[in-house]
Structure prediction request, 1129 residues.
Amino acid sequence: MKDNDQKIAEKLKKKKFSKIKTSVKNGIVYLDGEVNSWDEVIELGHAAGEMKEVKGVINNIIVKDVKEKKREKNLPKDTYNPHLPERADVVIIGGGVIGCFIARELSRYNLEIVLLEKESDVACGATKANSGQIHTGVGEESGTLKKKLCAEAWPMYDKITEELDVPFKRNGLLVVITKDTLPKIPSFIGNFISKYIIPYIVMRKGKDVGDKPRIIKRDELLRMEPNITDRALVAVFMPGYGIICPYKLTIALAENAIQNGTKVLLETEVRDILVEDKKVRGVMTNRGTIETQFVINAAGIFADEIAEMAGAKEFTIHPRKGSILLFDKEEEGYVNHQVSELRFPQDPYTKGGGVLMTVDGNINWGPTAIEVPDKEDKSVTHEEIEGIFEKYGFIFPNFPKNSVITYFAGLRAATYKEDFFIKASKNIRGFVNVAGIQSPGLTAAPAIAEMVLKILKDAGLKMEEKENFNPVRKASPVFDKLSVEEKKKLIEKNPLYGNVICRCEHVTEGEIIDAIHSPLPALTIDAIKRRTRAGMGRCQGGFCGPRVAAILARELGIPLEKITKDRNSNMFVGRTKSLLMEEDKCGQT
Amino acid sequence: MRADIVVIGGGPAGLASAVSAYKEGIKDVLIIERDMELGGILPQCIHDGFGNFIFGEMLTGPEYAQRYINELKKTEIKIKLNTMVLEIDSNKRIIAVNSKDGLLEIEAKAIILAMGCRERTRAQILIPGERPSGIYTAGTAQRYINIEGMMPGKKIVILGSGDVGLIMARRFTLEGAEVEGVYEIMPNPGGLTRNVVQCLEDYDIPLYLSHTITNIEGRRRVEGVTVAKVDSKMKPIKETERFIPCDTVILSVGLIPENELSKKAEVKMDPRTGGPIVDERMETSIPGIFACGNVVHVHDLVDDVSEAAEVSGKGAAEYIAGKLKERKIPINVKNGRNVRYIVPQIIRAEKFDKDIKFYLRVKEIEKNTRIVVSSNEKEIFEKKERIVRPPEMIKLNLSPEILNKITGNELTIEVKK
Amino acid sequence: MKRIHNFTCIVCPLSCQIELIEERNKILEVKGNRCKQGEKYAIDEFKNPVRILITTVYIEDGILPMLPVRSEKPIPKSFMKKCVKELSKIKAKAPVRCGDVIYENILDTGINVIASRDLIRRK
Prediction:
């Protein structure tokens, strides 16, 4: 260790680190000080993280004269009041796809598992805001945990999605090489390299992760994608690539875990980790304290803050925002596979995104990759929108760009080593960091869960397999996808499936009620949206909004004015006339 | 299940066309309406200004709807409420669903499309920023306040000075909210002057022309917007940006005819209107499928909707009676200078024995103009207009006398000085 | 002292900007209008601006929670906010027919507020 630290210390003497304070202990580099811009903070963090001897970077550098935006404390609502268990064998912090996968896997064993999620629903962090790609790992840097776990996990999805009854399509990725792939090289050389050399390099990378790639010459490419740009020269087809709905997957995982005995508590925020004699003793939340000896830190962009509570901080998270544009379902069929244009030089920290599609049929472009200082900044900026149109407008030049129906942003939880950080804390026994999960985190999730289970076993958790673990979870019926005959049968069983609420996506009252009363209940408008798609159509909830709100209020037994879009995002300020009556109270006219 | 005429939509267009078809002798008429009552958008349009031309009175939206509902009650027209049409095809087969009857498969002799329109969303105009609660289109906010009894917010910024936005500025104010301002990207207001006066000036609500919203802020609920002046190309001028704290953003940025079903039936559409191409009887490219109301093009006055809907009802009745014969080559109505769209887009009548009404919108404001109808380069009709504005639809009534002057297969309508 | 009042005329789409000059409530001049109706509009707006009162009231037992109402005749513009405030305190009861009087003689204007639609009772 000391030797390693000395090596790092030497490297930290470099000029670029001179304007800040640095120190190193046990392979962790600590950065402190002030700089002029967030970009500088990132640059220095990366510079430290890139050193192979460095195990983690804690970057506390701040930007001069910038005030941090205050984060509000989320207090529990009175309508959803789950019971907080007094103790658990394992407490999982974070209800994203990672936390929920771990919960599901742990529920195979005779263990008391509790999952804590601070938002009103699972999947509310990066999980719901990515493009839903199942990557093969071909685009990851060799030697990273990202590549290893992604390559292990991608073949698992056929089985997982069948067990959990979530939609999944393995439609493959076309890595397209165009006349613009090597912009800095004169075209006659560039085109030659592009057509005859690059495809084989890409093929090799595909085979390395266990895929069966194929070179697609121009004629075949045009048959596969008739609308693709004239500038396409050749492509490599990666059949292992797929698309999934990441939040439907997460909800299914959580429901399956609950089915098998896990307790999932929403709107439950961790305030402190109780440690005694360097051992985890419990977790303090806004609802009370749970006694436990094992904590899984799967808290996404807040994982560094949770780790700090336990005294197990070995990294800091810097959020990297990714925005995506989503287009009208009407354009389904314009593109048949996921399509990504290869362009050099490549960005070191992102795979470049592409023209993709959701498993529901919406084509989407993106994502961007913008370093942001604020962990709650999910704004989609004008520059990002313009940037997406420009970057992806080349591959399908005649795509009807004005059919955008929505856009959203997610924050990647990136460490400065830009890799997954999945380790049991050496300092604090029983505390496991599952952090820094950025792309391909969604794909790698099953492999990450397996790795975490092994870490728990090695850490002394007694894991006795359950006899009656049921890996199968059945989804509620999706009216729109049924045949005429199936629709008739469903309505006969329950007439509420005949009452269409969302006219864009044909979502019925029956489905909305299923969502509200499922084992993992939908408590907000957006939770219903994620489970049923009500509000995801081209009118974006303009028509169904009032109706969904009324059903939610009725089914939860709360007044309509208390309905929220997401956590703490109230839809209304009160009933009509309430403002006039308030005026009276204040004596105004 | 079978019906002679199925009307999809029980709003003012559907109501007027159904009653009109009934009066022409077709008794087997079915209106399919997705809401819990008839009237379409009218029950939530509680302000007056409706019916000035048809009834000679200034009625509120609900009162106007009530007139047609009362007339309907005197007929044997069948109604299915809370029923959503899922599919239609070019063979006039309809699949609809409700909780009482379950899935309905209906064969119609004629269909009248009267689905109205929906509102343009925030994403469709690409307003950057976060996605908090508190962003509503004006019509949805109107539904909440007037029908559901909920106040969407208390400090409001409105984008768009079309009539719906102006009406909502007044409505919010009267319910105790503070409307900080109405922002309009064009250099002229989008709605009727009457509304600018009675909704904004009456309440001292400022109207900012040539402005737009460049950013929406708010983690959970709207916290504020950034507005900016725009240049002649409607691009925001960064130096003029200003942050306005508020809790609600109301968008009144355009209506889009709701033609999903029409497209499923493979009806030919006109990209200039956003609706089906129709002839003088409001028949679409598919024989026996008619269309009326906002689904064809967005109207300013419901009176015009009712009037055109009556034509479609008569058309559907004539179709069923086998009376509609096609001209060998239909007459195309061509958009001339400063015309953004004209409805109907084609004329199929073999002989001209009744008036044909044309509805058109201009592209730009112009003063001291003549709207001219020409056939084969000869002017056959003109209407003088002191001022023409895009938000105010223009109607031309061409009598059989004038129509009979048409030679050839093209009719041009244009704005001349 | 002479005072100038500005009005945007709403009689026709020309929307003339009219200036009305008065002294001690005696109209001295009306200019900016291009027709006689515009002049009349400005004078009416100055002397006695009136508007139709439009709002909703709570309703009990109805299929909907709110009932749209309107004043039978236009009320003085200055009374608008007070009337709306007054109506926020009452509750109608279903069933109601279009035209039923919901509030008689609002704020002593001599004008009734009536229902704008039928609203049947909830089952």
